[in-house]
Write a structure and sequence with these properties.
The complex is a heterodimer of chains A (about 260) and B (about 70). Chain A starts with a strand and ends in a 23-residue tail after the last helix. Chain A has about 260 residues and is of the alpha/beta class. Chain A contains 8 helices and 10 strands. The longest helix of chain A is centred in the last third of the chain and has 21 residues. Chain B contains 1 helix and 5 strands, in the order ββαβββ. The termini of chain B are far apart. The chains are: A alpha/beta (about 260), B mainly beta (about 70). At the A-B interface, strand 4 and helix 2 of A face strand 3 and strand 5 of B. Strand 4 of chain A pairs antiparallel with strand 5 of chain B, so a sheet runs across the interface.
Chain lengths: ~260, ~70
């Protein structure tokens, strides 16, 4: 498998993993390990000043994993830029998964605000990985604005519906000069393999792994699926035909032909 | 006059007067400085400046940390 390069940094693993919804920090750490991932997303929230706060960052070895803070919760460009700056101040990391989701029901991204925030953040020296609807025109605009990747959604966040936007993602992959990361909605390893077979450069998975009965084993399953899909893409899939094409010889049958 | 700060959207009264600096405030709240980032009245305060950031009556302080997210 060819390594993936984003903003000059090389990744062997093409599975990015989210850290939300895990039952414990220990389970999260073991799952990240099993996934083989080298890119790990985190969110920013207010400290609970009345209660003890877990330090989840301590469980992530930053020499092994690229930390990717997200701007989840941002409803417009200004909020996303503010969260990005806070994330950089908190971690020293200038990578950001830019997401602007004004509607809490479907959590679909606002393309206009995302483009506005991306333009500001690129100017401020951020490595911007925007989460977007599967819109090839927007993907191209974000690429031109200097984003390091584009991350179209397969289906709504946490919905586990799989590749509902497949046809549009195909166009994005065809046109993109930056890596295309399929993010959100991948519910099964087969969905991840499908995205990788199409030529996606990576996938980002959280809910399907974190809420599985055994997240560690599910992470392993996704790891294998991503590798399988990528190898298949690099090798080139055999073409499709409308009719059958026998796999066994069509001569030497045990009967006398008339 | 009571010493009041608005921390994460909630007013907090300090009977013994305002904590002198942001670092002292975090100590009082039992929050590990290494795990948080702060914003005072919309301005980000770098962690290295916590100990010399003097607090003033009525300031809006945001204390933020990393949590799990996708």
């Amino acid at each position: 498998m060819k390594p993936l390069i984003i903003a000059g940094k090389e990744f062997v693993s093409r599975l990015f993993i989210g850290t939300g919804k895990f039952a414990s920090i220990q389970l999260m750490a073991r799952t990240i390990e099993a996934s083989g991932s080298q890119m790990v997303t985190v969110a920013l929230r207010r400290v609970d000043i009345e209660n003890e706060n877990d330090n989840m960052l301590a469980a992530i070895d930053r020499t092994r994993y690229q930390l990717l803070p997200n701007t989840s919760g941002a409803r417009d460009a200004d909020e996303a830029v503010r969260l990005s700056r806070l994330a950089r101040a908190a971690s020293g990391i200038n990578w950001v998964k830019l997401e602007v989701t004004p509607d809490p029901y479907y959590l679909l991204p606002d393309g206009e605000e995302t483009l506005k925030a991306a333009t500001t953040l690129v100017k401020e020296g951020f490595v911007v990985l925007p989460y977007i609807s599967a819109d090839p025109v927007l993907a191209k605009k974000l690429q031109d604005a200097g984003c390091a990747t584009v991350m179209p959604l397969a289906s709504p966040i946490g919905s586990n519906q799989g590749m509902k936007t497949k046809a549009s993602i195909e166009i994005i992959i065809e046109q993109a000069a930056v890596p295309v990361v399929v993010d959100a909605g991948l519910g099964a390893p087969s969905h991840a393999a499908e995205a990788m077979e199409m030529g996606a450069d990576a996938v980002l998975v959280n809910t399907a792994i974190a809420t599985a009965a055994n997240p560690v084993e599910m992470a392993r399953a996704f790891k294998m699926a991503v590798e399988a899909g990528r190898i298949a893409f690099e090798t080139g899939l055999a073409p499709k035909y409308k009719t059958a094409s026998a796999s066994s010889p069509l001569t030497g049958f045990l009967r006398n032909e008339p | 006059m009571n010493a009041i700060l608005k921390i994460n959207g909630q007013e907090k009264t300090f009977e013994g007067g305002l904590p002198e600096t942001l670092a002292v405030l975090l100590d009082n709240l039992h929050i590990d400085q290494a795990t948080v980032v702060a914003e005072i009245d919309g301005r980000i305060i770098e962690r290295k400046d916590f100990f010399r950031t003097v607090l003033a009556q009525g300031q809006a302080i945001e204390l933020i940390r990393f949590v799990g997210g996708g």
